[in-house]
Design a protein that fits this description.
The chain has four helices and nine strands. It is elongated, with a radius of gyration of 24 Å. 20% of the residues lie in helices and 36% in strands. It is α+β, with helices and mostly antiparallel strands and 171 residues long. The longest helix has 12 residues, at 159-170. The strands form three sheets. It has a five-stranded mixed beta sheet. A two-stranded antiparallel ribbon has the order 1-9. The protein has helices spanning 6-10, 91-96, 110-120, 159-170; strands spanning 2-4, 15-22, 27-29, 32-34, 40-48, 52-66, 73-87, 100-101, 106-108. The chain folds into two domains: 2-120, no CATH class; 133-171, no CATH class. β6 and β7 form a beta hairpin. The mean pLDDT is 90. It binds zinc ion (2 copies).
Length: 171
């Protein structure tokens, strides 16, 4: 994903605006795979201040997730506001300055996009509000089918009490 800034470079202070779309490969964070199910959209304002570029805008896409209760796959949209600096310095120096580097009159946004996705993509969630999860006995997804298992503690009048005790123990 690239931003051509030839015009803005010649006229410091001019604010440019762009709406960009790009497809990104799966990303990996601490062994966890982030799969984007939609192209990344970046809506950005940018300006050159004589030294570098300031970019501000919104990034949005959607990720594939597994429900924390029933493990079903589902997609979740997300969007994040960002504000970043691009300077005409080497990569190492840019990293030290906590900004991104560019050369010529094109800002390559790929690294910024990857970083924003890694930092902001939702990781855990439910496939739907009130997901019923899996039957603890047979593993059936209770959102789709009602199995005939008897939940082990359902008939026990002390089940609720035991649950409460366990809850307190966790604290
Ligand atoms: Zn679920
Ligand atoms: Zn069951």
């Amino acid at each position: 994903m690239e931003l051509n800034v030839a015009a803005e470079l010649k006229l410091a202070g001019t604010v440019g605006h762009a709406e960009l779309t790009g497809c990104f490969d799966d990303l990996e964070l601490n062994g966890r795979r982030i799969v984007l199910t939609e192209p990344v959209r970046v809506d950005v304002n940018y300006s050159f201040d004589g030294e570098g570029f300031t970019l501000g805008g919104t990034l949005s896409s959607a990720v594939l997730m597994n429900c924390t209760k029933c493990n079903d796959e589902f997609t979740e949209a997300f969007s994040v506001d960002f504000s970043e600096r691009f300077l005409r310095v080497g990569e190492a120096e840019a990293e030290e300055l906590d900004c991104y580097s560019y050369t010529g009159d094109v800002l390559v946004l790929d690294k910024m996009v990857s970083d924003l996705v890694l930092l902001n993509a939702p990781m855990y969630g439910l496939c739907r509000p009130g997901c019923k999860g899996l039957c603890p006995v047979c593993g059936t997804n209770l959102n789709n089918t009602q199995c005939s298992c008897t939940p082990p503690e359902d008939d026990n009048p002390f089940a609720a009490l035991k649950g409460l005790k366990e809850l307190l123990k966790d604290d």
